[in-house]
From TrEMBL:
Residues 1-122 form the DNA polymerase III beta sliding clamp N-terminal domain. Belongs to the beta sliding clamp family. Confers DNA tethering and processivity to DNA polymerases and other proteins. Acts as a clamp, forming a ring around DNA (a reaction catalyzed by the clamp-loading complex) which diffuses in an ATP-independent manner freely and bidirectionally along dsDNA. Initially characterized for its ability to contact the catalytic subunit of DNA polymerase III (Pol III), a complex, multichain enzyme responsible for most of the replicative synthesis in bacteria; Pol III exhibits 3'-5' exonuclease proofreading activity. GO terms for molecular function: 3'-5' exonuclease activity; DNA binding; DNA-directed DNA polymerase activity. Signal peptide: none annotated. Residues 270-390 form the DNA polymerase III beta sliding clamp C-terminal domain. InterPro entries: DNA_clamp_sf, DNA_polIII_beta, DNA_polIII_beta_C, DNA_polIII_beta_cen, DNA_polIII_beta_N. This is Beta sliding clamp. Residues 133-268 form the DNA polymerase III beta sliding clamp central domain. The lineage of its organism: Bacteria, Pseudomonadati, Pseudomonadota, Gammaproteobacteria, Moraxellales. One of its GO terms (biological process) is DNA strand elongation involved in DNA replication. It is found in: Cytoplasm. Keywords: Cytoplasm, DNA replication, DNA-binding, DNA-directed DNA polymerase, Nucleotidyltransferase, Transferase.
Length: 391
């Protein structure tokens, strides 16, 4: 395999896919990027067998190649390309002795390779269900819910995000058992169409990253993306070519995102949505954030518990203490209706919700030991549930 390509073009493609490479090296070859040169394309692929990212780069405009394939260490290849001078040509020649020679100007590097035939591929979705929606809507659904995914849990399905379609709405849900985040949007599907799929944490992070990178390219000229759900996989193709004066993107670079879905049943989130809440507080997000950050300084380091005492006159006492007998107390004025109530939250959980909201925030409560529904005023498309703590 031989390749001669502009440094910026190669680096752009590597930047888009390199994060999918397996840093833990469960299989040594997955620490590499696969490079395949065809008559018209350079195809770069990185994978950890959970997420696979593949970039197709059209050859031309000075880029040339000799058909062949190899794999190179992802980190080393990325660092070499990143640190070479701008607007130079990079030449790669893969030799039969499991070595690849990389030259650019006066620089020369020799990297060890592994056979491309050893690089596993995830494959394509079967029995597909395509969903088309705007990139901006997809980014909103993911950004407003992904913080609530569990990091590690024996209930492995909680370490991902639920994508559910019902009643012509796409709903994303994430929960770690202590808090739940939900976002929904109307999409163009048949009235009776339903589906569920759970996307793993890393896949959520990578798809969100790619969507945001695409947003930087298109700006206000936002387009649609098609999510292709299969029985085992989700696949999305995103354009990253050149943008013309009308905002259209050509197909000089395309990235295909493929992720293995979590095989499990997500809990029925509707059962934990609070109802019959007879105590409602309206609070300014910025004021509550400032008070919460100050008071939580003296909260217990492990539980991070902060106590809220709501009075009928709208005065809220916010306090925290710890094992060293430190204590912080601050008053917050809110609009409140209902009987007095005192309950405590994990400060970090409440702050995570406040970070994705703006303006007036509504807390819907019933009892001190019952979950609390939080949402932005007059916004039922984004809803958050936080379980209270016992301090």
């Amino acid at each position: 395999m031989q390749l001669s390509i502009n440094r910026e073009l190669l680096l752009k493609a590597i930047n888009l896919i390199a994060k999918a490479a397996d840093k833990r090296h469960n299989m040594v070859v997955l620490g590499n990027i696969k490079l395949e040169v065809t008559e018209q394309l350079l195809i770069l692929t990185a994978s950890d067998l959970e997420v696979e990212l593949s970039a197709e780069v059209k050859l031309g405009n000075g880029a040339t190649g000799v058909i062949g394939a190899t794999t190179l260490p992802a980190y080393k290849l990325h660092e070499i390309c990143k640190l070479l001078p701008k607007d130079t040509m990079i030449n790669l020649t893969a030799e039969a002795n499991e070595r690849c020679i990389i030259t650019s100007g006066k620089s020369r590097f020799v990297l060890g390779t592994l056979p491309a035939s050893e690089f596993p591929v995830l494959g394509n979705p079967a029995n597909i269900t395509p969903l088309t929606l705007s990139r901006a809507v997809l980014m909103d659904l993911m950004a407003k819910t992904q913080f609530a995914m569990a990091i590690q849990d024996v209930r492995y399905y909680l370490t991902g995000m639920l994508f559910e379609v019902a009643q012509r709405q796409l709903t994303t849900v994430a929960t770690d058992g202590h808090r739940l985040a939900l976002a929904r949007s109307v999409i163009d599907v048949a009235d009776d169409f339903t589906m569920q799929a759970i996307l793993p944490r890393k896949a959520v992070v990578e798809l969100e990253r790619l969507g945001n990178e695409l947003g930087k390219l298109v700006g206000d000229n936002d387009g649609n993306l098609t999510l292709v759900f299969g029985r085992e996989f989700l696949q999305v193709t995103l354009p990253f070519g050149n943008v013309d004066s009308t905002g259209e993107i050509d197909d000089s670079i395309k990235v295909t995102f493929t992720a293995r879905l979590i095989d499990g049943k997500f809990p029925d989130y509707r059962r934990v949505m609070p109802n019959n809440t007879d105590k409602i507080a309206l609070v300014n997000k910025e004021q509550m954030t400032e008070v919460l950050r100050r008071v939580s300084i003296l909260s217990n380091e492990k539980s991070r518990g902060v106590i809220f005492k709501f009075s009928q006159d709208g005065n809220v006492e916010v306090r925290a203490n710890n094992a060293e007998q430190d204590e912080a107390v601050e008053a917050l004025q809110v609009k409140y209706q209902g009987e007095p109530i005192e309950l405590s939250f994990n400060a970090a959980y409440l702050q995570d919700v406040l970070d994705v909201l703006a303006g007036e925030v509504q807390l819907n409560m019933s009892q001190a030991n019952s979950s609390v529904l939080v949402n932005q005023l007059n916004d039922t498309q984004h809803q958050y549930v936080i379980m209270p703590m016992r301090i």
